[in-house]
Design a protein that fits this description.
Layout: H1 3-9, H2 15-41, H3 52-56, H4 71-77, H5 82-102, E1 129-130, E2 134-135, E3 200-201, E4 204-205, E5 208-213, H6 234-247, E6 255-257, H7 270-274, E7 280-282, E8 288-290, H8 293-299, E9 320-322, H9 337-340, E10 348-353, E11 364-367, E12 375-378
């Protein structure tokens, strides 16, 4: 007997009981429907839980952010738990990184690797393999013991360096190496000049100014055969002739005549035109004239100026020299052959004589028609 029949044969129930009874009936009906559906679907293929019926009952796919893992995903990535698979993968990555680091070249481990040129496990600045595992070669600035005697890098072989191109001191070129490097040196320290009585200082002959007495003679107007006047006169012509004679010997610098006029200008004084320098004054043969310009004006020449521009001593010294100049280099205000422009014996000019005393520049007057010599000084 079903529950409806029972209900029909009983007396009416209170409302509360009636509600409970109806609910029981409805529940029984649902169970019966479920059993019927199960029986009817047993012949059909099983369906996926993720199919349309799951969506009908409001179920949703797992949210990746919750950390839940799809079983299919778990099976694809390997056996075991999801967390275990992740740990294995991370461990594998760590191992690979460690292997890469350990395989990088390491200098001084005894193995030539990567860009290394050498590695003998004895890296040092004076060994065959220097820091950085580079070969110690000539020109790198590091001395290779027992092979190189020096190494100044880019300075090797440069004049003045103590090291040659081949990293040996024997081939170095410098002042004091006992070899005259003609491109840079005049002499080696300690030498005396073959012609001049001067010392070698710093591989150069000691600096000095040249003084000579002219090999040629000039009248009071500064004329002579064989030298042009170039349109000049007076002191300018005298200076020109001193320069012409100096040029024949290829002396450097400018040369002026030790000669003064009475015109009162700045150029009238021999000292003003020459200038003077605080260094030695020597004749072309090297003979000392004065240790400085100041000493020349104060004491006069140490030795008589009787050697010409060619370094040759004049015949039959002493000789007269046009001057009109005081020992201090200023004009005497005496006879000057009308400013050294006339060559007549009606005019006179003051002169000196080639000696070492005060008369070297101040002796007496002489007729302007006579030909006598000039003192020529290299400008200070």
């Amino acid at each position: 007997m079903d529950i409806l029949t029972i209900f029909a044969h009983h007396r009416p129930m209170p409302s509360t009981l009636r509600i409970l009874a109806l609910a029981s009936i409805a529940l029984a009906g649902c169970k019966q429907d479920a059993q019927d559906d199960s029986a009817s679907d047993s012949s059909n293929p099983p369906t996926s839980t993720a199919g349309p019926e799951t969506e009908t009952f409001g179920e949703t796919e797992p949210d990746p952010s919750t950390g839940s893992t799809d079983p299919d995903m778990t099976e694809t990535t390997g056996t075991g738990s999801t967390s275990g698979d992740t740990t294995d993968a991370d461990t594998s990555t760590t191992d690979e990184t460690t292997d890469d680091t350990s395989s990088e070249p390491m200098c001084n481990n005894g193995i030539v690797e990567g860009d290394e040129e050498c590695d003998d496990m004895m890296v040092s600045f004076n060994g065959p393999c220097i820091p950085g595992c580079l070969l110690n070669v000539c020109g790198d600035g590091h001395i290779l013991t027992d092979i190189e005697s020096c190494d100044e890098g880019e300075q090797n072989g440069v004049y003045g360096s103590q090291c040659g191109f081949d990293c040996t001191k024997e081939t170095a070129e410098f002042c004091g190496d006992e070899v005259v490097q003609e491109e840079y040196e005049d002499c080696e320290p300690g030498e005396l000049h073959d012609d001049f009585e001067v010392k070698c200082i710093g591989c150069k002959w000691a600096d000095f100014r040249v003084v000579f007495v002219s090999s040629m003679t000039f009248d009071g107007a500064m004329n002579t055969e064989g030298l042009s006047n170039d349109g000049k006169s007076g002191l300018a012509r005298a200076d020109l002739h001193c320069q012409q004679l100096a040029d024949t010997q290829e002396f450097s610098g400018t040369f002026r005549a030790w000669l003064s006029d009475n015109n009162g200008g700045n150029a009238s004084s021999a000292a003003a035109r020459i200038g003077g320098a605080e260094m030695e004054y020597r004749m072309p043969n090297g003979g000392l004239v004065a240790t400085s310009w100041g000493s020349l004006l104060e004491s006069g020449p140490v030795n008589a100026i009787e050697y010409t521009e060619a370094g040759v001593q004049i015949d039959n010294p002493p000789a007269f020299v046009w001057s009109n100049t005081s020992p201090l280099g200023s004009s005497l205000g005496g006879a000057d052959c009308a400013g050294w422009t006339v060559n007549s014996n009606l005019e006179g000019g003051h002169h000196g004589v080639t000696t070492a005393g005060p008369q070297w520049t101040d002796l007496q007057n002489y007729g302007c028609g006579y030909k006598i010599r000039l003192y020529c000084f290299q400008e200070g």
